[in-house]
Amino acid sequence: MTEEISDIDRGDIKCIFLCEFHHTAGPTISCQIPQDFISKEVFESVSVYIIPKAQLEQCTITIILDCKILGYPMRIEDNKYARNAFYFNLCVVCDRNARAIQYEPVVQKLSHTLRDLEMESSFLSTQQENPIARARLTNFLNTVMTDLNKNKVCKLTDGTISLYLKVIELRKDPPTVKDWDVPVLTKPYRKIPHEKWDLTTQKVLPFIDGHNHITKISAKADVENNLVKSCVQNLAYYDVIKLDSLFQYSNIYAPTTKIHQLYANRPLQDQCINCIKIKGEEKPIWGDVFRFLCRFNHCNTVKQVCCIVNPATLRFNERKLIQWACLEGFLQRVHKYPVSVCEGTSQSWNGTHCMDEICLALNMSYGKLNDKFEHDPTVSMICK
C-alpha cells in the first residue's frame, strides 16, 4: 500500500544559502536561494551560531526556529584576508518538523568543495565585487537545491569542478527482534541478491520461510541467537523481511481501523487473492475472504473462526490470509499476558510477558500452557 508523502515527511530543501564573515559588517548572507527566505531579523538572531567559535568549526550544526537550519562552518587561514582568515558556512533549510539528517553528508561535501574553490581561485571572497563569480555561485546553489529535491542526486560540472551529490534514503529504525518473532520475506527467495549480504546473513536467509521463529532459525542455521536477531533486524531495515507473530490456531486477531480500505480497493483485493488462493483451484470470491477477516475480534480464536467459516470450502489458505493481513496492517495480533495474584509465582506472570514468550522459555505448547492458566484461579489474562 502506498501513501502520498508530503514535503515535510521527505524533508525537502526549502532554501540554501551561503553565509560569510565580513571583516567590518560581521556575519552576512552573501547568496540565498530563494531570495529573502531567511529574513535579516531571523538571521541576526542566530548568526552567532552560523559563524560560531573555533571549537565548532567543521562540525555539523542544527538550528531550529520556525524552520530547521543545517550547516557546517569552515575557516580558511591565509594572511591575504583582512583578519588572516576567511569564515563561511553553507546552510540548507528545511521545515521545522522535517528530518534533515540525510543532508549532513551533502552539506559537508559541498562545504569542502567550496573551500577548495576558494583556496584555488578566491571563488567565494571575491563574488561580491565580481558579478561573474556571483552568478556562478547562484547557479551552483540553485542547481544543487533543484536537483536534490527532484531527483535526490546532483551532478555538477563547472570548469574544473566535478561534483556528485546523493541524498541517502531515510529509513525508519528497524523493530526490535524477539525470540518468538517470525520473519517473512517481502519478495521471493530467488529474487534476493544473496551475494550482497555478509556470510552470516547468507546462512540465515534459507531458513526464513514465514513459519520459523528466531529461535528455530538459530538452531537450524547453527548461528548464535543474537547474531540471527542482528541479521534479521538488518534485513528488516532494508525491507527484505517483515516481522510477524508465530501462527497458531489458538491465536486471537482483531481487525484494525484500516480494514475498511480493503472494501473498495480492487488492486489490494487482487493482491490478497493471488497470495492466498489454493494452487490448482479457482480463485476465491472476495466477499467470502472479506467476511472471514471481519469475523475476527478480541474473543474468537482462529480455530473458532474457521469452525464458523470453513476456509477450505471457500478455496483459500487461512494461514496465508492472516499473515498477509497482519503484514499489511489490516489485522493485528491480540496477545495474552498472564498475571498472577499469588506471591512467589514466576516473574514471567506479571503482565509484561506474552504467552508466546513464556511458551518459548518453558518449551511448552500454547494450548497446554493456556489450559494450565485457565484452570488456575490465581491467574488472570490481559488481552491487548
Automatic annotation (TrEMBL):
GO molecular function annotations of the record: GTPase activator activity
Family, as annotated: Belongs to the NPR2 family.
Protein name according to UniProt: Nitrogen permease regulator 2-like protein
GO CC annotation terms, alphabetical: GATOR1 complex; vacuolar membrane
UniProt-listed InterPro entries: NPR2-like (IPR009348)
GO terms classed as biological process: cellular response to amino acid starvation; negative regulation of TORC1 signaling; positive regulation of autophagy
Xref: Pfam families: NPR2
